[in-house]
C-alpha cells in the first residue's frame, strides 16, 4: 500500500486548538489540493479522535474532481477508513452516510454490540489488533479489499503511529500563517515521540498557497 499523509498545521505545528475544534488553518486553494489528493487515493483515513472532534465527511466535494477520478478509472468517492479500536464512532457520524464505503478498523476490544450497531449502520468492520488497532495488519486487510493508495488526514495520534510503524511513503503539510499554541493542542505527530531514530524526510518541493506554504516530502527507507 502506498501511504500519503496530508495535514494542515500552524507555524508552531498544531493541527487544532487545545479545545480540539476544527480551525481554518488553510483556505480554498489548499482544500482544492486536498481534494486532488483524495481523488487520487483509494481510501481516506482518520483516527476516531478526528471523527469525534470534527465529524468529517471525507468525500470529494468538487464535482469536477469526481469526473477527474472517473477518468483515472476510480469512479465515485474513495473509501473512508477510521482507526477506531473500541468502536466509538457515533452512529450518526457523517462518515456513515451512503456516499462511500466506510471501513472501521477495530481491535478485539471493540464491544460486540457496538460492532453490530455499526455494521447495521452500513460500516464494513475489520478486526486488526488486540488492544488497539494494528495499523500494518489493518492496512494489509485494506489491500486485500483492493485498496492500493491510502491518504491519512490525521489527527496527530494516528499520524504519529503511522510514522512509528514505518508505513508512510509521502508527507504533505500545509503550514498556515498563524500560531495556535497550547501544550495540549494536537500536533502533527503526537503519541510518545521519537527519541533515537527519527523518520528521515526528503524535501521534494515547496508551493505557496492561500496565505501559507505546502511542504512536500518523501520518507526515506
Ligand atoms: N489540521 C488538520 O489537517 C487536521 C486536524 N485534525 C485535528 O486533530 C484532532 C484529533 O487528533 P487526535 O486527537 O490526535 O486523534 P486521531 O484522529 O489521531 O485519533 C486517535 C485515536 O484513534 C484511535 N486509534 C486506533 N488505533 C490507533 C493507532 N494504531 N494509532 C493511533 N490511534 C489509534 C485511538 O482511539 C486514538 O485515540 C482534532 O482536533 C482534529 O480537528 C484532524 C485531522 C486533520
Ligand atoms: N487541509 C485542511 N485545512 C484545514 O484548515 C483544516 N482545518 C483541515 N482539517 C481537516 O479537514 C478534514 C475535513 O473533512 P471534510 O471536509 O469534512 O470532508 C478533516 O479531516 C479535518 O480535520 N484540513
TrEMBL record:
<feature type="domain" description="Bacterial bifunctional deaminase-reductase C-terminal">
    <location>
        <begin position="2"/>
        <end position="215"/>
    </location>
</feature>
<keyword id="KW-0521">NADP</keyword>
<dbReference type="InterPro" id="IPR024072">
    <property type="entry name" value="DHFR-like_dom_sf"/>
</dbReference>
<dbReference type="InterPro" id="IPR006401">
    <property type="entry name" value="Rib_reduct_arc"/>
</dbReference>
<dbReference type="GO" id="GO:0008703">
    <property type="term" value="F:5-amino-6-(5-phosphoribosylamino)uracil reductase activity"/>
</dbReference>
<protein>
    <recommendedName>
        <fullName>2,5-diamino-6-(ribosylamino)-4(3H)-pyrimidinone 5'-phosphate reductase</fullName>
        <ecNumber>1.1.1.302</ecNumber>
    </recommendedName>
</protein>
<dbReference type="Pfam" id="PF01872">
    <property type="entry name" value="RibD_C"/>
</dbReference>
<keyword id="KW-0560">Oxidoreductase</keyword>
<dbReference type="InterPro" id="IPR050765">
    <property type="entry name" value="Riboflavin_Biosynth_HTPR"/>
</dbReference>
<comment type="similarity">
    <text>Belongs to the HTP reductase family.</text>
</comment>
<dbReference type="GO" id="GO:0050661">
    <property type="term" value="F:NADP binding"/>
</dbReference>
<dbReference type="InterPro" id="IPR002734">
    <property type="entry name" value="RibDG_C"/>
</dbReference>
<dbReference type="InterPro" id="IPR011549">
    <property type="entry name" value="RibD_C"/>
</dbReference>
<dbReference type="GO" id="GO:0009231">
    <property type="term" value="P:riboflavin biosynthetic process"/>
</dbReference>
<comment type="pathway">
    <text>Cofactor biosynthesis; riboflavin biosynthesis.</text>
</comment>
<comment type="subunit">
    <text>Homodimer.</text>
</comment>
<keyword id="KW-0686">Riboflavin biosynthesis</keyword>
Amino acid at each position: 500500500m502506498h501511504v500519503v499523509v496530508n495535514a494542515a498545521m500552524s507555524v508552531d505545528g498544531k493541527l487544532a486548538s487545545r479545545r480540539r475544534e476544527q480551525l481554518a488553518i488553510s483556505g480554498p486553494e489548499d482544500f482544492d489540493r486536498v481534494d486532488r489528493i483524495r481523488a487520487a487515493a483509494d481510501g481516506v483515513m482518520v483516527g476516531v479522535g478526528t471523527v469525534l472532534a470534527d465529524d468529517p465527511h471525507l468525500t470529494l466535494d468538487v464535482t469536477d474532481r469526481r469526473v477527474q477520478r472517473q477518468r483515472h478509472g476510480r469512479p465515485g468517492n474513495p473509501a473512508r477508513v477510521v482507526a477506531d479500536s473500541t468502536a466509538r464512532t457515533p452512529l450518526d457520524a457523517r462518515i456513515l452516510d451512503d456516499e462511500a464505503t466506510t471501513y472501521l478498523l477495530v481491535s478485539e476490544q471493540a464491544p460486540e454490540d457496538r460492532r453490530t450497531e455499526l455494521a447495521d449502520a452500513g460500516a464494513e468492520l475489520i478486526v486488526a489488533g488486540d488492544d488497539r488497532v494494528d495499523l500494518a495488519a489493518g492496512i494489509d486487510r485494506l489491500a486485500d479489499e483492493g485498496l492500493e493508495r491510502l491518504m491519512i488526514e490525521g489527527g496527530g495520534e494516528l499520524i504519529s503511529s503511522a510514522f512509528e510503524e514505518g508505513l508512510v511513503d509521502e508527507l504533505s503539510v500545509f503550514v498556515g500563517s498563524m500560531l495556535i499554541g497550547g501544550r495540549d493542542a494536537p500536533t502533527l505527530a503526537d503519541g510518545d515521540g521519537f527519541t533515537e531514530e527519527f523518520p528521515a524526510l526528503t524535501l521534494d518541493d515547496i508551493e505557496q498557497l492561500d496565505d501559507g506554504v505546502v511542504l512536500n516530502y518523501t520518507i526515506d527507507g
